[in-house]
Write a structure and sequence with these properties.
Radius of gyration: 19 Å
Pfam families: TetR_C_13, TetR_N
InterPro entries: Homeodomain-like_sf, HTH_TetR, Tet_transcr_reg_TetR-rel_C_sf, TetR_C
Domain HTH tetR-type: 7-67
CATH architecture of the largest domain: Orthogonal Bundle
Structural class: mainly alpha
GO molecular function, one term: DNA binding
Shape: elongated
Distance between the termini: 60 Å
Largest sheet: none
Protein name: TetR family transcriptional regulator
Number of strands: 0
Number of domains: 2
Strand content: under 5%
Length: 200
């Protein structure tokens, strides 16, 4: 099996696992269930992953990379949305729309696994934390951009504000997921809209 085929197999395993783990959680899913979904033998799994925990780390990296690419795509749309405040609001409106389209059933794998894995896997907890840090860094940059152009309040500490916004949205996501409702995310979006603008 050549390197390209090997990489394709690994990605197929991870891609299938995202949907299954979002539905059932990490602890509730067996390796065989994931492999059956992509028709891959167990030997191929252990070629790529030494344990289920290491697979979990790779899964978080895989999903986190896609999530960061999505965030970066939105937050760097300077050509179509030059106003940084409006761009940040548009990003969260898009996330809200995505949640509505999925009927609150899917969402963010990193957020879903936060509480589940943090108590028993240091490696997965570290990867969750790294994903959050990366997201906050992207938010901080667009806040700094907005402050420089005058669309976001100068009095705000950009790093602190990025953490607040991230954590407000995360909390709203977790609460909304628990109740299968979107209202917490609507409230989080309204917070972003009212907290950031320079003319508030």
């Amino acid at each position: 099996m050549n390197a390209t085929a090997n990489n394709d197999t690994k990605e197929r395993i991870l891609d299938a696992a995202v949907g299954i783990v979002l539905e059932k959680g990490f602890s509730g899913v067996g390796i065989n269930e994931i492999l059956k979904a992509v028709n891959v033998p167990k030997g191929s799994f252990y070629h790529w992953f030494t344990s289920k925990e290491q697979f979990g780390v790779e899964l978080l990296k895989y999903f986190g990379g896609k999530a960061q690419a999505y965030t970066r795509k939105w937050l760097t749309k300077t050509d179509t949305i030059p106003n940084a405040y409006e761009r940040l609001v548009a990003f969260y409106e898009a996330r809200l729309s995505m949640t509505l389209e999925q009927d609150c059933q899917q969402g963010c794998l990193v957020s879903k696994l936060t509480a589940e894995v943090s108590s028993w896997s240091d490696a997965m907890r570290a990867e969750v934390s790294a994903n959050y840090d990366a997201a906050i860094s992207l938010l901080r940059r667009v806040i700094e951009e907005g402050q420089a152009q005058g669309s976001i309040r100068q009095s705000l500490d950009a790093g602190h504000t990025a953490s607040i916004i991230h954590d407000v949205w995360l909390g709203a996501y977790l609460r909304g997921t628990a109740g299968k409702q979107v209202q917490p995310l609507r409230e989080a979006l309204q917070f972003v809209k009212s907290y950031l603008p320079a003319n508030r």
